[in-house]
Amino acid sequence: AEDGIRDSSVTGVQTCALPISAILAYSTSRSHRREQDAPPQGRGVHMWSKLLDFYLPYAMRGDPESQYEIAEIWLHDLKSVTMATYWYERAARAEHADAAAQYAFLLLKQTPPKHEAAEYWSTRAAMKGSKRGQLIADFVRRIRQRSMAGRENDK
To answer: Vertex 62, ends 56 and 65: CA angle to 5°?
Structure first.
């Protein structure tokens, strides 16, 4: 889109398509945010846009905390599970424990649920100290055990 804020031409879902100049304006030498960089504060209808402007360049360079924050914005503010899942997965692959736990949870909500993948990601989250990851891993294991016990009873 011309304003660099909204674009629904590809998927029909409104997404943030920031101008490439905004991404290239940041140094690509390191994926971590500088200490003096801080996300914008405040509330407002378009606060999410400012937050995406802040986090996206870092997320694109692989910063897992920025990827997680973008996923949170997509899930809670912009209500797009598809985009949130994408960013949670990226952060989870970069070893972000909370992102891995949330990604596992979203995998369970898919139709059909992806139990094996959810168990994998929740276990990884738990191994990194995520209590939510541990709860999800335990839950998935119980579901899989019941499923296997049900198959045994059918024989």
So the answer is: 70
